[in-house]
Design brief:
The protein folds into three domains: 96 residues, no CATH class; 310 residues, no CATH class; 92 residues, no CATH class. A two-stranded antiparallel ribbon has the order 1-2. It starts with a helix and ends with a helix. By secondary structure, it is mainly alpha-helical. It is built from 26 helices and two strands. Helix 2 crosses helix 20 and helix 9 packs parallel to helix 16. The N terminus is likely disordered. 47% of the residues are buried.
C-alpha cells in the first residue's frame, strides 16, 4: 500500500470506542479534581459534599458516651424483644436473648432498629466539636456493625446501611481535615482509626479500610499528612498481630501485597516518620480475592458478607480470608495516600508494579489515557494481553471493554490513528468470533476500508475457509453474509453447518 493510501486510512480511522471511553473517564469517580490522577478509594463527591455541609455545622453539644450508647441500644433491644416474641427457638440467657439467625425473619431497615444510630450520628455530624463527634461516630459504627452481624440480613439492607454510614463519616472527616486545627483533626482521626482496628472489625476488613480511608483527606495537607500514615501504620500493625494470633503465615494469607514493610513502602519518608517503625503485612476497595490475581469479582464492595462475628472469631478459614482481604485492600489505600500526598510518580509506579491486581491495572489504564500517553498504553495493553489474558477490568463496564485487554488495544490504536492494525484486528474478530454477539467489528472494518472493502471481504472469506476444521457456527460471519448478500459463501458454509440453513435461508433461495 502506498503512502497516500496509508495516510487516507489513518485520517479516516473511526474514533467510536475512543470517544466513548474518554467520555466515561471524564465523568468517572476515578478521576478526581482533588488529586492528580485516578483514585481507588477516594471519591470526589466526598470532598464536594463536605464543603457543601460546612455551613450547616456549628459549635453544638454532642451527646455524652452513656447517652449515646443508650440511644443506640434501646431501639436495637426493642427489635430483639419483638423477635423473641415470635421466634420459637429464642431463649433468655443472663438477661440476654439468644436465637439462631436462620430462625429470624429477614431484617428490614424500616424496623427502625437502627434509629438510635441515626440520631447519634446525626447529632455528631452537625457539630464542629470534632473529637467528641468522631468518638460518637466510631461508637455508631462499632455498635451498628455488631448488630447487623447478629440479625438475618438476607437482603443486605443492613449491609447497605453500614456502607452509607461509612460514606457519611468520610464526608464528615473530610470537613474535619479541612477546618479543624491539625492536632485536633489528627485526634479525631485517631478516634475513627481506633474503631477501625478494634477486635470486632478485624473480620470486616473492607469496612475497616473504608474507615481508614478517612485519612485520605488528611494526606492532602502538609501539616496533617502524618496522621494519615499513622492510621495506615496502626492498621498494618493491628493486622500483623491478628495474623500472629491466628497463626497465619504469609503463604497462608496469599494475596498480592507481600512483605512486612507495610506503610514504609507506601509513602517513603512520610510513612517511615509517621509509622514509627511499625511493621505489618501489606497488600483497595475490593472484596476478598477480588483485588488479587485474575479472578476478579466485585472490587467495589466496601462490606463483604457479614457473618456472626462472635461465632467466627476462632474460625481459621474466616481469619485467613479476612487477613488476605486486608492485604489486598490496603494496596488501594496505599496508592491513594501517595496520590493524595502529591507523590504522583510514585503512585504511577505503584500501579504499574501491581498490575497483576485487576483494579490496579484498570487504574493505570485510566492514568495513561487521561494524560494522552497512548504510546505507553498500547505496549502496556499488549504485554497484559500476553501475560494476563484472562484478567478482568473491573473498573469499566463490560460493554465498554467487551474484549478486555484487546479492547484497550483497540482504543489506543484509534487514538494513534493505526488504521491498518485496526483492520487486521477487526478481520480477526470476524473470523474467530471471540465475542459471538459482536455487531460492530464488521461495521468498523467497513468504515475503515472504503474502496478496499471488497478486498477485505475476500480476505475474511479466505481466512475463514467456509468454516472448515471448525466445530461451531460463527454468528458474526453469518450476519456479514446476510448483510453483504454473499450467496455462494453461504451455500458453502451451510455444507459444513447445515443447522444454519434456516437463518441463512434468504441467501439459499
Amino acid at each position: 500500500m502506498d503512502d497516500i493510501a496509508q495516510m487516507h486510512i489513518e485520517a479516516c480511522t473511526p474514533m467510536l470506542e475512543y470517544d466513548e471511553f474518554m467520555m466515561f473517564l471524564r465523568h468517572s469517580w476515578m478521576v478526581s479534581p482533588d488529586f492528580d490522577g485516578p483514585t481507588l478509594l477516594w471519591n470526589a463527591d466526598i470532598g464536594e459534599k463536605s464543603r457543601q455541609s460546612d455551613t450547616e455545622r456549628g459549635d453544638t453539644p454532642v451527646v455524652d458516651d452513656h447517652s449515646a450508647e443508650r440511644m443506640i441500644t434501646t431501639p436495637m433491644q426493642w427489635y430483639m424483644d419483638s423477635l423473641a416474641a415470635i421466634v420459637p427457638t429464642a431463649q433468655h440467657v443472663d438477661d440476654m436473648i439468644q436465637m439462631p439467625i436462620n430462625d429470624m425473619p429477614t431484617f428490614r431497615i424500616s424496623s427502625m432498629a437502627l434509629a438510635g444510630v441515626d440520631a447519634v450520628a446525626g447529632n455528631a455530624m452537625m457539630s464542629t466539636r470534632w473529637v467528641e463527634s468522631a468518638h460518637n461516630l466510631g461508637t455508631c459504627v462499632a455498635m451498628a456493625t455488631k448488630f447487623v452481624a447478629n440479625v438475618a440480613d438476607r437482603d443486605g439492607e443492613g449491609y447497605d446501611y453500614l456502607d452509607d454510614l461509612v460514606t457519611r463519616i468520610r464526608v464528615y472527616m473530610s470537613s474535619a481535615a479541612r477546618n479543624a486545627e491539625p492536632s485536633v483533626g489528627g485526634q479525631a482521626l485517631r478516634e475513627i482509626v481506633d474503631v477501625a482496628c478494634n477486635e470486632d472489625l478485624r473480620l470486616n476488613t473492607m469496612l475497616m479500610i473504608g474507615l481508614l480511608s478517612c485519612g485520605l483527606s488528611f494526606a492532602h495537607w502538609d501539616d496533617s499528612r502524618t496522621y494519615a500514615y499513622d492510621a495506615l501504620g496502626k492498621a498494618l500493625s493491628t493486622m500483623s498481630e491478628f495474623a500472629r494470633h491466628n497463626g497465619i503465615s504469609s503463604s497462608d494469607a496469599g494475596g498480592t501485597g507481600g512483605g512486612t514493610d507495610g506503610a514504609k513502602g507506601a509513602g517513603g519518608s512520610h510513612a517511615s516518620g509517621a509509622n514509627g517503625g511499625a511493621t505489618g503485612t501489606d497488600s483497595g476497595n475490593g472484596g476478598g480475592d477480588a483485588a488479587g490475581g485474575d479472578d476478579a469479582v466485585d472490587d467495589f464492595d466496601y462490606l463483604d458478607d457479614l457473618d456472626d462475628l462472635d461465632d467466627t472469631k476462632e474460625d481459621p478459614e474466616t481469619a485467613q480470608a479476612a487477613h488476605r482481604q486486608f492485604r489486598n485492600a490496603v494496596l488501594f489505600l496505599r496508592h491513594d495516600l501517595m496520590r493524595a500526598s502529591g507523590d504522583v510518580d510514585e503512585a504511577d509506579q505503584f500501579l504499574l508494579d501491581h498490575r497483576d491486581v485487576p483494579a490496579m491495572a484498570s487504574a493505570y489504564i485510566c492514568r495513561l489515557a487521561i494524560q494522552d500517553r497512548w504510546e505507553e498504553l498500547l505496549p502496556f495493553a499488549d504485554a497484559m494481553k500476553r501475560d494476563h489474558p484472562d484478567q478482568k477490568l473491573p473498573l469499566y463496564p463490560r460493554e465498554l471493554v467487551p474484549y478486555g485487554w484487546d479492547s484497550v488495544r483497540e482504543i489506543a490504536m484509534e487514538a494513534l490513528g493505526m488504521g491498518l492494525d485496526l483492520r487486521d484486528m477487526y478481520r480477526e474478530r470476524i473470523v474467530e468470533a471471540y465475542e459471538p454477539t459482536d455487531t460492530l467489528a464488521a461495521l468498523h472494518l467497513k468504515m475503515l476500508s472504503h474502496r478496499s472493502w471488497p478486498d477485505q471481504l475476500e480476505q475474511i472469506v479466505n481466512a475463514y475457509d467456509d468454516g472448515n476444521g471448525r466445530y461451531a457456527r460463527n454468528t458474526i460471519y453469518e450476519r456479514l453474509m446476510l448483510i453483504e448478500g454473499m450467496r455462494d459463501e453461504a451455500r458453502r458454509y451451510c455444507s459444513n453447518f447445515p443447522e444454519a440453513r434456516e437463518d441463512l435461508a434468504p441467501l439459499l433461495d
